[in-house]
Amino acid sequence: MNKRKNLIWQLPFLTLLIVGTVLIVMQQRNMPYTRIEGKIFGTFYHITYQSDKDLKAEIEKALQEVDNSLSPFNPTSIITHVNNNEDVVVNKMFTDVYRIARKVSEETNGAFDITVAPLVNAWGFGFKEGQMPDKTAVDSLLQLIGYQKVSLGKNNRIQKADPRIMLDCSAVAKGYGCDVAASVLRRHDVTNYIVEIGGEVVTKGVNEKRVPWHIGINRPTDDPLQSSQEIMTILNVTDKAMATSGNYRNFYYKDGKKFAHTIDPKTGYPVQHSLLSATVLASDCATADAYATSFMVLGLEGAQAVLSKHPELMAYLIYASPDGSYQEWFTPSLKAKIIED
To answer: pTM of the entire structure?
Structure first.
């Protein structure tokens, strides 16, 4: 009898709980999606998130902090001070990126290397204007390359084996910027969003149509103006970070030969192999960004070898066959994320 009486008393509370839950779900479903965009890191960002809060100022402040830490194009940034051999204490953003870069460098046997800056500059793709180097110049610059030649001291200062060594985190900074912007959204309890900076992406939840976020991967046709929108495939990237690296948008021709922006830290020369585009999915975009760059250095077989040791990574690689046609290869774990036509 007492149990029955207690149940009767509990029914109103259970009803209120159910009704309240339904109202919260309905409110969340009806919450508008906000779109913001702007310029950062020399490119554009686009962010869509479900909230009625205007978070643009807060997100741009956070992205500017990344720029102030890691942009070699910023004359007052921490990395510029490091490159100028000034006594500077690096901040958390710098140390976060440094540690990610160091880890990927070790895992790829130096294919990813943030000390490659002097070579990138020399070939005309960096933050200092350069001219095409001859073999003597390349051999000389190679003496300054090697991630083992720099370290992060206990006093949060970068130590160099040679003062002429320069750092460039451009191959990981955009991805890290996506992670930073996403962290701002999470702090405001935003559960549905997509952050895109210069092609690097972080997603969570669902889009306005209540379906997972779908991201297209471009066909890697030579397109320095970035005008081509031809899609090779579409991926479900919900609750993942994605970064793509390729040599089809940043290159130049000289004496009839194509020179791409990806420089091999071991040889000192732009890479020449069949891999045209590397897309990596990971838990964070900085890591995805770094691995995508390293795969473009390693080439198809080298990338496959690294991926075989890292099941936590997903990858979609586009390469040219001997007859010039586009071919694709992807990790088995990615198959479920490919959207069929």
So the answer is: 0.86
